[in-house]
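pinned: reference chain
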Amino acid sequence: MPAILDIELIRTFHAVARIGKFSAAADHLHKSPAAVSVHVQRLEAIAGGRLLERDNQSVSLTALGKRLLASSTELLSTHDRVLADLQGTRLAGRIRLGVPDEYADHVIRDILPIFIAAWPNVVLELKTAPSYALRDLVQRGKLQAAVITQPKGQCGAEDQLLVSTAPVWVAATGATIVPTEPLPLAVHAAQCPYRQAMIESLRRSARTVRVVLESPSNQAVKACVEAGLAISLIDRARVTARMQILAGLPVIPEHEVVFIRSQGSRTEETVDLLSQAIQQNFRLY
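pinned: its structure tokens
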């Protein structure tokens, strides 16, 4: 009898691959860690090899795991889109969603078209801003939901973890940092958690700095780094071929990308469905 891919095994695998930890993926899926481990083992038996390399801290994809993740992403999206299409016309409403600049392109291109196709009568309004500004707007009820980055451990009871991320210091490939000179910085906008982490860590280490660029645009910060004009802080998963990770600078603790929602939206089915779409499809890479 030919093997059959169970969609729930695929969903579990995607959650572990995206979040990077079995325990956090289990919380996200509302399953026990043992159940998540069994799902992965069953999928590995079908795939014919290991999909994940495990250690005490996190998991990473094997070559086979990367192939399966790439080839099953559309399968999972199609399954959810077909299922939603059977029910999609019954829902209508308006959602005001906030997204930080660094993730806006991914959310707009890769996630929202799937959601809109499945729920055509739900109207989306988008706002981009730094994470802490978006968090404030959600708390004040100006936005119904937002994707934000924040230091690890700050998730509220209603927040939904999308992925953990390790911020790293980066410079242009081949660039050198002169210890006796002020560090040239490309800093993110005010109310960005990475900006605060950069400034606070360097202040504590007594490093002198000079700000080369201050911008709300993630693309501008990246361009400044790749051009060799400054160093900055970005997600490890977003380091490009034109960047190098720097050693010898203060270690920045892990952060988390989370989906948050306003108090008034917690019973709204449309926001529940948007949350599910973002959780299932959000990637750092």
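why pinned: The mean pLDDT is 88. DSSP finds nine helices and twelve strands in the chain.
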